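Subject: Sanity check before I submit

Could someone independently write out the structure tokens for this chain? I want to compare against mine line by line before I put it in a report. The sequence has 208 residues.
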Amino acid sequence: MEYILVSDIIDSRKASANVLMTHFQVIVDELNTRFKKSLKSPLTITLGDEYQGIALDLESSISILMAAEEAIIRHGFEFKLRQVVYLGEIDTPINTKVAYGMLGDGFIQARHAVEELKKRSLNRHFVHSGDQKTDTMLNGLFQLLTTVIDSWKTSDFQLLSEFIEHVDYKIVASVMELDRSNVWRREKTLRISDYHMLKKLIHLSISK
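---
Independent answer below. Compare away.
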């Protein structure tokens, strides 16, 4: 059983193909570099607007999923991803160089999960780890997290990126050379504390 990662870009046909693919490649390259030791098979773009890969374990899978969301914000990109983590069978040897040429029911189920996400409006993430309690917690928390992230505007991504890195509004105000009171108000309206609490709960739900 392996932790299969499959992700695709939402509404990719509505954006400029060249710009979108360039930005998507930036995210994939960054994740592969950062999580090199956590990937059995690197994230590989398969259909232009989709990637797949195999992670070492559930904790690594969730970290990659979260990092993808934050990388999009940090770079100021305008697309969103559907992301699936699926523990399933792979019948062929794992390709450690590129996520091609591997077959198994796990990949079929992971892609089916992506298709199911397309039918929903409340969530962009799905986790199947084989443990029902863990999956219920994670999918519920990700649904809440999605409502926070998807309420953010691209024009706020620079500020949000600083909040994600520094948390403390006083540090963010200092780094961006902004008025503290204004940054404090933005912290509240952007639901930064909700974001960090949900992120913490997600990681706690999979910690051993």
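---
OP: Matches mine. For the report I'm noting this point. Residues 133 and 205 are 10 Å apart (CA to CA).
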